[in-house]
UniProtKB/TrEMBL annotation:
Name of protein: ROK family protein
Keyword set, alphabetical order: Transferase
Gene3D superfamilies: 3.30.420.40, Winged helix-like DNA-binding domain superfamily/Winged helix DNA-binding domain
GO molecular function, one term: glucokinase activity
Protein family: Belongs to the ROK (NagC/XylR) family.
């Protein structure tokens, strides 16, 4: 799928709704708002008439939604259409980038909290970082302090604060379980909103990173995104909708046992995927036995491929994207993942080979994705 095709896919931010007489009008307005924004994000410009034709919405509905989003500085009029022989030139609409700032923090990396002020496109305007000796040293006070430093750097109006964490997060901004941070039922969103009087959104780090790959990389509408850092997590896109699960625990593959006699995990079990292929585990093994580096990564790829074979086959997903540091996520590991996946899932009905590939986006992918998540969430609240 080309970049242009991704930019003009109207199901980006929300699946198309089936409108019935029982549908809440508020839901319809939100759906229309997100659909139009998704059509233009990140850098497409269209006239109201073009938006109407692409989305199937009436011109009246498009005009109302666009006007509302212009009033909220989400969209902006950028000029006139090129001259044509038919009718009046339309005014072009695009995403406004100069008004809003977003505060985004990434709590998924070892030894450091990364934060940035971004614009509405996720472009980094300024940064701040906080080193930590271990992930369990991160506290709400640490997060609040870094947020304040970033807010002080913001030159535009702050739209909201987004925090990406490892583990399970509910709809209300509560980190229900993060083993790597040693947080349980932490109402982080409420704490931040009370402190800063700004809307705050807490998300799983893999879900945030997957948004960046989908919008700015080569991610497909159906994708399994794997993040290897201090933990191992996954995000699942089905028809461009993020799968969260009944308990918001979809993608929590880190504590799936793939080797019953393996090393003990932080959760107490033995042989969890996270205990076998996290960056800290693999780096320690490679440092101890550098001559066995390739064998260590091949075994890690086999473990990961084994864990992914069931969801990949169950959901018929062929795009497997892996993000992590290059000393861990490299061709040796990815080739092993691909080989293991296809050996476990090949059938006469599967026509496409499953490919595990490296994430196309760089080190800011969690920060950028969390900024996108803040915009998505705010679009539901106007």
């Amino acid at each position: 799928m080309t970049s242009q095709q991704q930019q003009t896919d109207v199901s980006y931010l929300a699946p198309l709704m089936t409108i019935t007489e029982k549908t809440d009008p508020t839901d319809i307005r939100i759906n229309n708002r997100m659909m139009i924004f998704s059509l233009l994000f990140p850098n497409t410009v269209m006239s109201r008439a073009q938006i109407s034709r692409r989305t199937g919405l009436s011109r009246v509905s498009v005009s109302e939604v666009v006007s509302e989003m212009i009033d909220h500085h989400i969209l902006v009029e950028t000029g006139q259409e090129a001259p044509s022989r038919r009718g009046k030139k339309g005014t072009l609409i695009g995403v406004e980038t100069g008004y809003w700032n977003i505060i985004s923090l990434d709590l998924s990396q070892p030894f450091i909290i990364q934060g940035a002020v971004t614009n509405i496109l996720g472009q980094v305007l300024s940064r701040a970082e906080q080193p930590v000796s271990k992930s369990t040293d991160i506290t709400p006070d640490t997060v609040i302090e870094l947020c304040q430093r970033l807010i002080d750097k913001a030159e535009g109006t702050v739209l909201g604060i987004g925090i990406a964490v490892t583990g399970i997060v509910d709809d209300h901004g509560t980190v229900t379980d993060s083993r790597n941070l040693d947080w349980s039922d932490l109402h982080l969103g409420d704490l931040l909103e009370e402190r800063f009087d700004l809307p705050c959104f807490i998300d799983n780090d893999a879900n945030s990173a997957a948004l960046t790959e989908r919008f700015f990389g080569d991610g497909y509408r159906n994708m399994l995104f794997i993040q290897i850092s201090i933990g191992v997590g996954a995000a699942i896109l089905i028809d461009d909708s993020m799968v969260l699960g009944t308990n918001h625990a979809a993608g929590e593959i880190g504590h799936v046992v793939v080797e019953p006699d393996g090393a003990q995990c932080t959760c107490g079990k033995h042989g969890c995927l996270e205990a076998l292929v996290s960056t800290s585990t693999l780096r320690a093994q490679m440092a101890a036995k550098p001559e066995e580096r390739d064998a260590i990564l091949q075994q890690a790829g086999a473990y990961l491929g084994k864990a992914l074979s069931m969801p990949a086959s169950l959901l018929d997903i062929t795009d497997i994207v892996v993000y992590g540091p290059p000393d861990v996520v490299n061709d040796t590991l990815l080739d092993s993942v691909t080989e293991t996946l296809n050996a476990a899932t090949t059938t006469s009905t599967r026509q496409s080979k499953i490919m595990a590939r490296r994430c196309e986006c760089g080190e800011n992918n969690v920060i950028i994705g969390e900024s996108i998540s803040v915009v998505q969430s705010k679009l539901k609240q106007f």
